[in-house]
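Can't paste images in this forum, so I'm doing it all in text. The chain is below; anyone willing to post the predicted structure tokens underneath?
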Amino acid sequence: MLKLRVVEILTQKGKTKYWLYKQMGMSYQNFNRMINNETKSIKYGYIEAMCQILECDLQDLFEYNPDEP
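Text version of the structure:
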């Protein structure tokens, strides 16, 4: 399973989900689903924006665990 690690990165940086939500400029419903790994797809633009805002690389943003459903 591919998992977005945004909450962990925010915690490490001392930032909140609300802070990132305001930076991203997207609807709260879509943002919340994305952050909570409840979506099947994420636009490339959002991935790029998160990398820039969080000052991280793509491999930092995602975690892959083939044993999880």
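The beta strands are 2-4, 62-64. DSSP finds five helices and two strands in the chain.
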